[in-house]
From TrEMBL:
Name this polypeptide is given: Rho-associated protein kinase, putative
Signal peptide: none
Keyword Kinase attributed: yes
Pfam families assigned to the protein according to its UniProt record, in alphabetical order: Pkinase
Keyword set includes Ribonucleoprotein: no
A single MF term (Gene Ontology): ATP binding
Domain Protein kinase: 37-183
Keywords from the named record: Kinase, Transferase
Cited Gene3D superfamilies: Transferase(Phosphotransferase) domain 1
Length: 183
């Protein structure tokens, strides 16, 4: 999976031309990581965060704006997940202010795979996705944003569920998502 492979300047130029530009400017951690980590680049852009590839095995998910509550929510989930073993959930190595350092998952998304005309092990993938959701539920959380772009594949073609910033306690109301995944 190649990613964007952008510099900080390209990222800043992108947001300068989009209405989604952070109100207070880009988080300075983004530029700091890109300038201090050798060969680091912008891998992807989300609604409120950016993913930086900082080594062949590690990405950093950084809040676009300092103090973003959604990234803090994801850190709460990663803290809880550190107490259980679930092979189908993303692994976080380190949580710090405005940044999560996560294991890089290299083989694309389910969204990418859906456009490829090829036999797929759908039953195995459904079992793995169910296992990932069940792991979260044992901690009294639900994912909140399961969709094909949040389901990645590792080197062994095993599912890894990512993006826990909209996870919530079981029973809480959810105010996120897009059709056809949320109604």
């Amino acid at each position: 999976m190649a990613g964007l492979n952008w510099t900080f300047e390209q990222l800043a130029a992108y947001f300068a031309h989009h209405a989604s530009f952070p109100r207070i400017g880009l988080n300075p951690i983004i530029e700091r990581l890109l300038s201090t980590c050798c060969n680091a680049s912008v891998f992807g852009i989300g609604g409120h965060s950016v993913v930086l590839r900082i080594s062949p095995e590690i990405v950093a998910k950084v809040a676009l704006e300092p103090g973003d509550e959604r990234l803090r929510q994801e850190q709460t989930i990663f803290e809880a997940l550190a107490k259980v073993h679930c092979p189908n959930l993303a692994q976080c190595y380190l949580r710090a202010a405005d940044v999560n350092f996560v294991k890089f998952i290299p083989n694309g998304t389910l969204y990418d795979r859906m456009s490829i005309a090829k036999t797929r092990p759908i039953l195995r993938w459904m079992l793995q996705l169910s296992h990932a959701a069940a792991c979260l539920e044992t901690l009294s959380y639900c994912h909140g944003d399961i969709n094909p772009q949040n389901i990645l594949f590792d080197y062994n073609d095993q599912i890894k569920l990512i993006d826990f910033d909209y996870s919530l306690k079981v029973g809480d109301e959810l105010d996120v998502g897009y059709k056809p995944y949320v109604r």
